[in-house]
Amino acid sequence: MRPDGPERYRRILAAVDVVPGDDDAETHALNRRILDWSSSWALADLAELHLVHAWDAPATGLLRRWNTSGLLQETANEEYRYVEDTRNRHQYALSALLDELSDVLGPEGFGYLAIQSHLPKGSAIDVIPNLAADLKADLIVMGTVGRGGIPGLLIGNTAETILNRCDCAVLAIKPPSFVSPVGISD
Prior knowledge:
By secondary structure, this protein is of the alpha/beta class. The protein has helices at 25-45, 62-66, 72-113, 124-135, 157-165; strands at 11-15, 48-52, 116-118, 139-143, 169-173.
């Protein structure tokens, strides 16, 4: 949190990482925690809530490199279909997560929030700080799985990089299974 931050948040950006077709319970639970915290805070502060998921199509460009037939237009069309299919799968996974939140909050609470979702293509490290600046977000709520050992004690690589690139407060949430390596002794 920033010491010079606002008393109440006006715009909250919740950053989730949905993986289409992956039933990883840990990632899903972390995404739910992000949505629970951010929606609760948005309702308490009467803030706008924005949901972001950065995605990428890693094979973009490979089709052109592998094209030996010289059919450039056909290759471009295949690449376009690949990118659109990838985007649609991410959109579907994000919509499913929002449907779950709607079930938890009920139609009135969910409707009041009027969550605005963003699905930009690119790396989360670049996309999230840029979107936060564009929206003039006061708070980013995001997950962090962390690294092992001392470097991962507090925060993970992506969250740490985003924190250093943003001018707003960042709330980094650990997954439910996270156990702190630091304990309190009697």
